[in-house]
Design goal:
The chain is mostly helical and about 120 residues long. It has one helix at about 50-125; strands at about 10-15, 25. The chain is built from 1 helix and 2 strands, in the order ββα. InterPro entries: Stathmin_fam, Stathmin_sf.
């Protein structure tokens, strides 16, 4: 950003258009003496080996805490999945037990009918 004095700017009013006001700003050419108000990059300070080591350790701690947080979230997400799997296993077990019981009842009914038919044949003879 460059600062400019008000003498560097000329304002020229144009003919009034129907929509409002119009101005033309004429800026004087930038002088070689104008210096940026803010330097492009901050001054670098020399870091000692100790400071670098502290920064590396702090970064490692942040990485570990982030990793722990991610693992915690994954574990929390995994709980509902485990519950869903457990429920599916229980439902499957219930269905299998019901099918087995139904099959057994049908077999008993067929055996009973066969026995009744055999008894009836014996009585008829």
């Amino acid at each position: 950003l460059f600062t400019m004095a008000s003498s560097d700017i000329q304002v020229k009013k144009l003919e009034k258009p129907s929509s409002g006001q119009a101005f033309e700003l004429i800026l004087s050419p930038r002088s070689k003496e104008s210096v940026p108000e803010f330097p492009l990059s901050p001054p670098k300070k020399d870091l000692s080996l100790e400071e670098i080591q502290k920064k590396l350790e702090a970064a490692e701690e942040r990485r570990k805490s982030h990793e722990a947080e991610v693992l915690k979230q994954l574990a929390e997400k995994g709980e509902p999945e485990k519950e869903v799997l457990q429920k599916a296993i229980e439902d499957n077990f219930s269905k299998m037990a019901e099918e087995k019981l139904t099959h057994k009842m049908e077999a008993n009914k067929e055996n009973r009918e066969a026995q009744m038919a055999a008894k009836h044949i014996e009585e008829v003879r």
